Amino acid sequence: MTPHKQHATAPLILASSSAYRRELLSRLQLPFTCQSPDIDETALSGETPDSTALRLAHRKAQAIAQLSGPALIIGSDQVATLNGMQIGKPGNHENALQQLQMMRGQKVIFHTALCLLDTRPDSKYPCQIQNIPTAVTFRDLSDAELDAYLRIEQPYDCAGSAKNEGLGISILSAIHSDDPTALTGLPLIALTSMLRLAGVAFFN
């Protein structure tokens, strides 16, 4: 028998077109819809990586809030950094190989920002926002190994050029985070805390 669940009292919207975030959110077994926000994701001059991630997570949620009625809207963004330098999505094989060559043997910090907007008029927590950092150490692998990995998994839409939930875990030597799903793109521990404050019950 499937236990009864009390779901959100307002529509739950994921402000993202990411298949990774959609899969992660589906683990919570709550009904939700996805809408893709149309925003400029360029970092501002002088902006720190964590500030970029937080601002963009908020902007994504805001963009959808302007198009919807009362709802719980989830925005998330991730910025990877090596020695303070931002590392974005590579987009193609050549850029991905350059990223992995630069990061091998190095510790990279992934800033995953999460924003939950509650646009209901009686909301006690209209905006919850948090940055969840993850420290990832890359193995010191040869060019041939890195090239072979990229040709198999083709993680060209991933900041840092590796899918830790897939074969990419083989090119990493350590992951340190308070929220293990943050690295994949949606910190579920932080999100469930935010949703609980918004009145969402997961099981009764």
From TrEMBL:
<feature type="active site" description="Proton acceptor">
    <location>
        <position position="77"/>
    </location>
</feature>
<feature type="site" description="Important for substrate specificity">
    <location>
        <position position="78"/>
    </location>
</feature>
<protein>
    <recommendedName>
        <fullName>7-methyl-GTP pyrophosphatase</fullName>
        <ecNumber>3.6.1.-</ecNumber>
    </recommendedName>
</protein>
<dbReference type="Pfam" id="PF02545">
    <property type="entry name" value="Maf"/>
</dbReference>
<keyword id="KW-0963">Cytoplasm</keyword>
<dbReference type="InterPro" id="IPR029001">
    <property type="entry name" value="ITPase-like_fam"/>
</dbReference>
<comment type="similarity">
    <text>Belongs to the Maf family. YceF subfamily.</text>
</comment>
<comment type="function">
    <text>Nucleoside triphosphate pyrophosphatase that hydrolyzes 7-methyl-GTP (m(7)GTP). May have a dual role in cell division arrest and in preventing the incorporation of modified nucleotides into cellular nucleic acids.</text>
</comment>
<feature type="site" description="Important for substrate specificity">
    <location>
        <position position="165"/>
    </location>
</feature>
<feature type="site" description="Important for substrate specificity">
    <location>
        <position position="20"/>
    </location>
</feature>
<keyword id="KW-0378">Hydrolase</keyword>
<keyword id="KW-0546">Nucleotide metabolism</keyword>
<dbReference type="InterPro" id="IPR003697">
    <property type="entry name" value="Maf-like"/>
</dbReference>
